[in-house]
Amino acid sequence: MNLAKALEKLSISQLNPMQLNAAESIQKGNDLVLLSPTGSGKTLAYLLPLIEKLDPDKKEIQALIVVPSRELALQIDQVMRQLQSGLKVNCCYGGHSTRVEQNNLSQAPALLIGTPGRIGHHIRKQNLDFSKCGYLVLDEFDKSLEMGFQEDMSFLLKQLKNLKQRILTSATNLTEIPDFTGIQKASQLNFLTADQTKPSRLKIKLVHSPSRDKTDSLFLLLCALGNTNSIIFCNQRESVEMAAEVLHEKGLEHEIFHGKMEQIDRERALLKFRNGSTKILVATDLAARGLDIPELDNIIHFQLPVNEESFIHRNGRTARMHASGEAYLILSSNEHLPEYIHQKVETIELAKKPQLPPLPEWQTLYIAAGKKDKINKMDIAGMLHQKGNLAKDEIGLISVLDFSAYVAIKRSKIKQLISLIREEKIKNKKVKFAIAD
């Protein structure tokens, strides 16, 4: 694939130094261990040179990308779709229909992306043939180890008998690489040290909460931050739900994100956050890494992270991608600033009489049809222009999933739009339209 055309399709002007170095190493055929911070572009670093090695005419699995989360699998899949490489790509992950996946795998993809457990399931069901698979990527490998996927990964790697090249990525230094990876004499590119030696432009601000549950202080802080993008990090899903309930009672629109949610609910929450329909995401550390999250203004540590590494990855959602950002810590009277925070911390006072931020200018339209119905973004945009009487700037991000689609629509237009298109069809198919919950 021509590099200039690939970057144009991704709306990127040029690759960064890490991506250029990684691509050069992969093109040479070396096994590679790539250490680079969250948000630095590791996915593109290995995808572009990997695509060059695959043959779209061969009906066999040629490459496997193993990821720790379904969200990262979907993110990689989305990049591949944007690149329009001509390669057949399939995703396998928990929470997705195994029947749909099995049907998709009946014609082998050139590139398979998946989580360790789900790939293992398909191996046991004999839905996968890795005899021709020459390339393996273990993406966010440190996160996979952290989530306890060692046994699953060891099992599936035993099925890969004919690998030509192994690529491992990590956002943290690895003290040792497990033997089951088969990586012994790999080239290593370490961009962690270079990143950490740069002067930090992350501003850390402290909010003292008079109460132990801290929810009132969280509400006051969000009101003070106004109409900006914020992720609120909690340590457990119960804390996410507790904080979210208080925000709901106080009239602050938000979404939640944690590992016990149904996959479709997690996808919808991220879609609404990406497209601007919500400005606030309350999440566990599952949202700290490997997700395609839009530009952030604020990271809020509602609960202190369990260690320095978690603190770095949470803040990396804003500071590492944009070289600056603001992180807020909310501390109750029995909590203290962690010892690993060495830089200057500004304590801020919050107004006692808050003013609710305005509602986001976008709302999300739900469409009950998707890729499996042969519907694409152009079909949806065309219908909204022609039948919904919407101008181009009244339609935002369009996301098409297997059996549904979501579109950001200007809030002032969405109710009128639904009344206009209620009986309309897309590609001669009558579908349901509604405001996404």
Overall body shape: globular
What count of helical segments does DSSP give? 16
CATH topological fold name of the largest domain: Rossmann fold
Query: What portion of the residues fall into strands of 2 or more residues?
Result: 15-25%
Unreliable stretches? 194-199, 319-323
CATH architecture of the largest domain: 3-Layer(aba) Sandwich
Number of strands: 20
Please outline the major beta sheet: 7 strands, parallel
CATH class of the largest domain: Alpha Beta
The domain count comes to 3
The rounded distance between the terminal residues' Cα atoms is: 40 Å
Strand sequence of the main sheet, in spatial order?
3-4-2-5-6-1-7
CATH superfamily annotation of the largest domain: P-loop containing nucleotide triphosphate hydrolases
Rounded Rg: 23 Å
Sheet/helix structural class: alpha/beta
Kindly describe this structure.
This protein is an alpha/beta fold. Helix content is 33%, strand content 20%. The chain is globular, with a radius of gyration of 23 Å.
Question: Any chance you could write out the topology, listing elements then pairs?
Answer:
Elements: H1 3-9, H2 17-27, E1 32-35, H3 42-53, E2 63-66, H4 70-83, E3 89-92, H5 98-105, E4 111-114, H6 116-124, E5 135-138, H7 141-146, H8 150-157, E6 165-170, E7 187-190, H9 192-196, E8 202-208, H10 215-225, E9 230-233, H11 237-249, E10 255-257, H12 263-274, E11 280-283, E12 298-301, H13 308-315, H14 319-322, E13 325-331, E14 345-347, E15 362-367, H15 377-386, E16 395-400, E17 405-410, H16 414-421, E18 425-426, E19 429-430, E20 433-435
Parallel strand pairs: 1-6, 1-7, 2-4, 2-5, 3-4, 5-6, 8-13, 8-14, 9-11, 9-12, 10-11, 12-13
Antiparallel strand pairs: 15-17, 15-20, 16-17, 18-19
Helix pairs in contact: 2-3, 6-8
